[in-house]
UniProtKB/TrEMBL annotation:
InterPro entries: PsdUridine_synth_cat_dom_sf (IPR020103), PsdUridine_synth_RluA-like_CS (IPR006224), PsdUridine_synth_RluC/D (IPR006225), PsdUridine_synth_RsuA/RluA (IPR006145), RluA_PseudoU_synthase (IPR050188)
Pfam families: PseudoU_synth_2 (PF00849)
PANTHER family listed in its UniProt record: MITOCHONDRIAL RNA PSEUDOURIDINE SYNTHASE, RIBOSOMAL LARGE SUBUNIT PSEUDOURIDINE SYNTHASE D
Molecular-function annotations in GO: pseudouridine synthase activity; RNA binding
NCBIfam families: rluA_subfam
Native source species: Methanococcus maripaludis (strain DSM 14266 / JCM 13030 / NBRC 101832 / S2 / LL)
Protein name per its UniProtKB record: Pseudouridine synthase:Pseudouridine synthase, Rlu. Related protein
């Protein structure tokens, strides 16, 4: 199947007339230096349908165009359940179930969320490289964003870095917290075993904002705002305070009430990379976590 394409256009007005093309690409299209270099090399940047030097000064009423391709999907399609929450030409947002790896690895070659999305493409006659904006552990449920093109991916990654893209989780944790809301700020690094993460002065700065929304019998329900996005960040930070996520066998202990860590990607808030519309997507708490909370009351 032919690669999908999108054209971004901008008409030069009096405010930006006289500016260099490269500056307009940075300031108005918000393209990174890496993307500008790549698109220029591939002859995908145009002014009035012609390729010109990035140092050229633009004239009023000229049209600047950037051709964005969607890439080619190389993931094997598999007929797996996929819960699509939102979709347009640029984004796909899905509600991931438990016990599903997000992307194929050397140890998990099939049965992943990416295989399910590839099948969704096949059914709907689509073809784009699957670019996950955020990621979830195998047994964490909830919302995931897939960018259908490199521009949308770059814009949303930038929003994550700047704290514009909000990722709100619900977790059920062991015990009660002394502070009912706060920010856990501790660096995280990979453990020597190559699997677990741990607090480390040599790790990456990590910030987890939390708020207790309900107290149960020796357990608490937390709303968590992930301010940075390190691997296992929420799980490591909460276990470090003694309030490990119930059911988390890696950082806590097994539970008779739930067969996975009780962590759910609940809300995503961001600005659409193309339309600039404010988007809020909500995923309801899954039944296993609802039952867990009920049994802990």
């Amino acid at each position: 199947m032919e690669c999908q394409k999108k054209i971004l256009n901008l008409t030069v007005d009096s405010k930006i007339a006289g500016n260099k093309l490269i500056d307009v690409l940075k300031d108005n299209f918000e393209l990174s230096n890496k993307m500008i270099k790549k698109f220029d090399k591939e002859n995908k940047i145009f002014v009035n349908s012609k390729n010109i030097s990035l140092k050229s000064k633009l004239k009023e009423n000229e049209t600047v165009s950037v051709e964005i391709d969607y890439g080619i999907n190389n993931i094997t399609p598999e007929n797996l359940t996929l819960n699509v929450i939102y979709e347009d030409d640029d984004l796909l947002i899905v509600d991931k179930s438990k016990n599903m790896v997000v992307h194929p690895t050397k140890n998990v070659l099939s049965g992943t969320l990416a295989n399910a999305i590839s099948n969704h493409q096949k059914i709907n006659n689509q073809n784009y490289k699957i670019r996950f904006v955020n990621r979830l552990d195998m047994d964490t449920t909830g919302l995931l964003i897939v960018a259908k093109n490199s521009y949308s991916h770059q814009q949303l990654a930038k929003q994550m870095d700047e704290g514009i893209l909000e990722k709100i989780y619900i977790a059920v944790v062991n015990g009660h917290l002394d502070l009912k809301e706060g920010i856990i700020e501790d660096s995280i690094d990979l453990n020597e075993n190559g699997i677990k993460r741990e607090l480390s002065n040599f790790g990456k700065i990590s910030k987890t904002k939390y708020k207790v929304i309900e107290e149960l019998k020796n357990a608490s329900v937390l709303e968590i705002n992930l301010l940075t996005g390190r691997t296992h960040q929420i799980r490591v930070h909460l276990s470090s305070t003694g309030n490990y996520i119930i059911g988390d066998t890696l950082y806590g202990e097994t539970s008779k009430l739930i067969d996975r860590q009780a962590l759910h990607s609940h809300i995503l808030r961001f600005i659409h990379p193309i339309t600039k519309e404010k988007i809020e997507i909500i995923s309801k708490l899954p039944d296993d976590m609802k039952n867990l909370i009920k049994n802990l009351k």
